[in-house]
Design brief:
Elements (H helix, E strand, L loop, with lengths): L13 E2 L4 H5 L2 H4 L4 H20 L5 E7 L3 E6 L16 H7 L3 E2 L18 H7 L1 E10 L2 E8 L2 E11 L4 E8 L11 H14 L4 E6 L6 E5 L5 H8 L11 E5 L5 E7 L6 E6 L2 E2 L5 H20 L12 H5 L2 E7 L17 H21 L1 H34 L20 E6 L1 H10 L5 E6 L21 H7 L16 E5 L4 H17 L1 H5 L3 E4 L4 E5 L2 E6 L2 H13 L8 E4 L8 H9 L6 E3 L5 H12 L3 H11 L9
Parallel strand pairs: 2-9, 13-15, 16-17, 16-18, 18-19
Antiparallel strand pairs: 1-4, 2-3, 3-8, 5-6, 5-8, 6-7, 9-10, 11-12, 12-15, 13-14, 19-23, 20-21, 20-22
Length: 642
């Protein structure tokens, strides 16, 4: 990678003040003090190392979760400057870790050409929210070290040896009095660092988990960059084109884009600015969308694939089945807030649009077979869109002619405030009947489903409208589907899937979750989807109150407690629930519907890419990856009824 030639010393470290506020209001800086915020600490330190890679100086980053949940991040970049800062009169390195708005990334005269960490809070926030932090720096012929406790310096920067190497190593232990948990999830970190390696061509990132008896290790380095990224994202999908379309353009705004079409019906476009995942898109995404729509329409017109009487393809038609990753590098990006989820620089839209239009137009001319295959899919998508429109209007007309627009089987609640209401989507009429009788009619609605529903992973939108299994769900939620979905119009604050604790129930949950993910994704992102957890066992004995167990661990614990009371296992009757219908209304209320005692699992989505990969794997057309997944995970299955 080309190095950004510029001095990087104490004068480039700019101070903008204080740390105590971070400990008092950590959510303002890392989003939350949950496991998500805990992981954010690691990202902040690794982001600094990646910025060194973007500047052309760092080739390797090594992350370790040490025993006891200690984090160690080491890079071979230039090392944080160790000379005395002219304003703070302490070392530049200590300034970076103790001053909230200090860093080498402000303005044009800094140590970095582009960077994600523009707010100067990363290292100091990690330090403030850690029980202790230890920083070791190699540069200027020496090894330097400094130590902190709860953000306060206990050992100023001290030279401890000589070295001809460069780099920074940061070890820290998060503060247990601030975070809800200190237990890092290796898979979450692994996914994040794999993404970083894809985005920084040639950078090697190694992540290790040294906790437990069997250490885990992943080693990521992708010379193909975003091309490799798209191939990874599509590994479980049937591809229309063998090789991704690859666009790379240097300039005022360096651009790297990879595009590949699959036979799927959903679009998956991921955007990044300076390696930051802009999950809400922004001007770079707008420019990309505008360009691909224009390029395909222009090509189709020039080759007479679209006749004069034909309407232009719309953006949704052109993007059906697309997997694309867009990465731009912007010197002074304008993000919406510290979370950096949307790019606002207006000039980026036109730059991306021009590059994509030119590059894609050239590709289509040079690859007519790929162009024809993709355009055939786009034209079929346009036909399906028109069919979906007609189906949608037909459903609306039908509903308008009826006395209500709610599905006939829905037993609604009396309260009309969505924030206080919940709907149980229940498997089967039998369980639905028990749920209707056992519910609290004031705020709980019941929608029974019967039979297996449509697998939307293998169907276009025109097959969904009017579908006798899905249409009741659409009408009950009340906010539309797809691009028309409006989260502000949902009729229930909680949408709860209640299915049997068996294989069929798991399949129904997966089908519904696939539908919500593909056509009502904001419902999941907003935290409105839940899974009810009915009990697996009931323990009963004359003269004893029934005991319900939700897991095998609960069952073992219950037997142990009964034995302590002098009740032998043989004296207790045990019932294994195979279906919700086996419970009467009172039991269903007590175990699964009463807010005071029930267990609800909130469906969350921290990683949209991982979720897309999972649904494609489980519900898509490709059989081989699914077979492999089943073979590898069969040993973990519990409570399988045959």
């Amino acid at each position: 990678m080309e190095k950004f030639e510029h001095d990087y010393n104490a004068e480039q470290i700019q101070v903008l003040e204080g740390l105590e506020h971070v400990r008092k209001r950590p959510g303002m800086y890392i989003g939350s003090v949950s496991v998500r915020g805990l992981h954010h600490l690691v990202y902040e330190i690794v982001d600094n190392a990646v910025d060194e890679a973007l500047a052309g100086y760092c080739k390797n980053i090594h992350i370790q979760i040490e025993p006891g949940n200690i984090i160690c991040v080491e890079d071979d970049g230039r090392g944080i400057p160790v000379d005395i800062h002219p304003k703070t009169k302490i070392s530049a390195a200590e300034t970076v870790y103790t001053q909230l708005n200090a860093g080498g990334k402000f303005g044009g005269d800094s140590g970095y050409k582009v960077s994600g960490g523009l707010h100067g809070v990363g290292a100091s926030v990690v330090n403030a929210l850690s029980d202790w932090t230890e920083v070791t720096i190699q540069r200027d012929g020496g090894i330097f070290q400094m130590k902190f406790e709860k953000g306060k310096t206990i050992q100023p920067l001290t030279r401890i040896g000589d070295s001809d190497k460069t780099g920074t190593k940061v070890r820290f232990f998060a503060d247990g009095s601030i975070f809800e948990t200190l237990d890092y999830e290796f898979d979450v970190l692994q996914n994040r660092f794999r993404e970083m390696a894809f985005l920084t061509k040639g950078l090697r990132i190694v992540v290790e988990d040294l906790r437990g008896e069997t250490p885990k290790k992943s080693d990521f380095c992708f010379e193909g960059g975003l091309k490799s990224f798209v191939e990874y994202l599509n590994k479980n999908k049937e591809k229309i084109q063998k090789e991704p379309i690859y666009i790379e353009k240097d300039g005022e705004v360096p651009i790297e884009i990879a595009i590949q079409y699959t036979t799927a019906y959903s679009e998956n476009i991921y955007t990044f600015v300076n390696n930051i995942n802009t999950v809400e898109g922004g001007t770079h995404l707008e420019g990309f969308k505008r360009a691909i729509t224009k390029a395909f329409n222009d090509y189709a017109r020039s080759k007479n694939i679209l006749k004069e009487k034909d309407s232009n393809l719309l953006g949704d038609d052109v993007r059906e089945g697309i997997t694309a990753v867009i990465s731009v590098k912007v010197k002074e990006p304008q993000f919406e807030g510290q979370t950096k989820t949307k790019l606002g620089n207006s000039e980026v839209s036109g730059i991306v649009s021009a590059v994509v239009n030119e590059s894609l137009s050239t590709f289509l001319e040079e690859n007519p077979n790929v162009a024809k295959a993709v355009l055939d899919k786009c034209i079929n998508a346009a036909k399906a869109r028109e069919a979906a429109r007609k189906a949608r209007e037909m459903v609306r007309r039908k509903n308008a002619m009826e006395t209500t627009t709610l599905p006939g089987k829905l037993a609604d609640c009396s309260n009309k405030n969505p924030a206080e209401c919940e709907v149980y989507i229940v498997e089967g009429d039998s369980a639905g009947g028990s749920a209707k009788q056992g519910r609290d009619r004031r705020f709980q609605a019941i929608l029974p489903l019967w039979g297996k529903m449509l697998n939307v992973e293998k169907a276009r939108a025109d097959k969904i409208y009017g579908n006798d299994k899905l249409n009741p769900v659409i009408l009950a939620v009340g906010a539309g589907i797809g691009p028309e979905f409006d989260i502000t119009k949902i009729r229930y604050g909680k949408v709860i899937i209640m299915a049997d604790a068996d294989v069929d129930g798991a399949h129904i949950r997966t089908l519904l979750l696939t539908f919500f993910f593909r056509y009502m994704r904001p419902l999941i992102e907003n935290g409105n989807v839940f899974l009810a957890q009915p009990p697996l066992y009931k323990l009963s004995k004359r003269g004893m109150e029934d005991i319900y167990c939700y897991t095998d661990e609960d069952l073992t614990k219950a037997f142990k407690e009964l034995e302590e009371k002098g009740i032998a296992r043989e004296q207790v009757g045990i019932q294994r629930y195979k279906g919700l219908g086996e419970m009467n209304p009172e039991q269903l209320w007590e175990t699964t519907m009463d807010p005071a005692h029930r267990i609800l699992i909130k469906v969350t989505m921290d990683d949209a890419m991982a979720a897309d990969e999972t649904f494609s794997l489980l519900m898509g057309d490709e059989v081989a990856p699914r077979k492999k997944f089943i073979e590898e995970n069969a040993k973990y299955v519990k409570n399988l009824d045959i």
